[in-house]
Amino acid sequence: MALASVVLALIVRLVIFRSLAHLTGITSALIDDQLIEHLRKPVCTSVLYFGFTLAINTTQLTIGSGLIINIPLSVIVSSWMRAALRVSTSLLSSLGTQDRFTIIESRTVPLFDLTAKLLTILVGSYALLLIWGINPVGWLASAGIVGIAVGFAAKDTLANLFAGFFIVADAPYKIDDYINLDTGERGKVTAIGLRSTRLLTRDDVEVTIPNGVIANAKIVNERGGPNLKMRNRIQVGVAYGSNVDRVCEILLEIGRAHEEVCAQPEPRVRMRGFGPSSLDFELLVWIEHPEYRGRL
């Protein structure tokens, strides 16, 4: 049985996986080649050590058979844990570079990668405990008590972590977006972490805001529309009795002549109302960068 498992493992490694590698080499994608490379070792290890386990079980040793069987089973589980960690990283990296997926993006890959690794380690550890005959119920109960204590002690930190997870998943803003908060902060997003978000204001001052605060705030994303352009409203008041047609012509000339105003959509002029001492107009122009609104 042991000899047969060695021969079968060699056949799987040298014949089957080489054939699969040849087939995946035809395609232009790299992810299939990486998957074959990551799965080759755990599959061959499983075939080899499972044959050893059957051979040991067949001999029916009077002493130490259980211990000897647990060792190859543990090697099999450890091999698949290592392969699962590599496969998840490769898959997420490949999906993060494609535009077809809106949730798995390059900025969300670290979050999903960490989640996949934690799940893999938890499931693998649970399987190892079962193999060695250790009851995991007591460990889980202890972990639950510790988790409750940690939750009370670090509730603000955990709130920020959960808020950061939903911010990354929901994506109300991304790196380089220009946002306004109802708490008064306004700036460009420079970093999005699981605990906090950093903004760079127009004063070149970096502001760090906990995700628990920003998740409960009203967020105005000035770059969140279909394009990066933004309309700027410029208030203009002229005296009563002025030639309103001439006022509109002058305002349009000023808007079209400015080098930082977009040609499309073109500038527009609107009369908004009769003020206490002036006719109130608005010059509506489109700009490329929201941070230049005040200067313009």
How would you describe the shape?
elongated
Sequence of secondary-structure elements: HHHHHHEEEEHEEHEE
Radius of gyration over alpha carbons?
32 Å
Structural class based on helices, strands and sheet pairing: alpha+beta
Main pleated sheet: 5 strands, antiparallel
Contiguous runs where pLDDT drops below 50 for at least 5 residues = none
Beta strand count: 8
Mean pLDDT: 85
Determine the N-to-C terminus distance.
Answer: 82 Å
Physical arrangement of strands within the biggest beta sheet = 4-3-2-1-5
β content, as a range?
15-25%
How many alpha or pi helices?
8
Q: Helical amount among residues, as a percent range?
A: 40-55%
Our count of domains comes out at 3
Blueprint (SSEs and pairs):
Blueprint: H1 2-24, H2 31-59, H3 65-96, H4 109-131, H5 136-153, H6 155-170, E1 178-181, E2 186-192, E3 196-200, E4 206-210, H7 211-215, E5 219-221, E6 230-238, H8 244-257, E7 268-274, E8 279-287
Antiparallel strand pairs: 1-2, 1-5, 2-3, 3-4, 6-8, 7-8
Helix pairs in contact: 1-2, 2-3, 3-4
Q: What does the model show?
A:
The chain is of the alpha+beta class and about 300 residues long. It has three domains: about 150 residues, no CATH class; about 55 residues, SH3 type barrels, CATH 2.30.30.60; about 60 residues, Alpha-Beta Plaits, CATH 3.30.70. It is about 55% helix and about 15% strand. Helix 2 runs antiparallel to helix 3.
Key phrases:
296 residues; SH3 type barrels; Alpha-Beta Plaits; 3 domains; 5-stranded antiparallel β-sheet; 3-stranded antiparallel β-sheet; 54% helix; 17% strand
Brief summary of the model shown:
The chain has helices spanning 2-24, 31-59, 65-96, 109-131, 136-153, 155-170, 211-215, 244-257; strands at 178-181, 186-192, 196-200, 206-210, 219-221, 230-238, 268-274, 279-287. Helix 1 packs antiparallel against helix 2 (31-59) and helix 3 packs antiparallel against helix 4 (109-131). The model has no long low-confidence stretch (mean pLDDT 85).
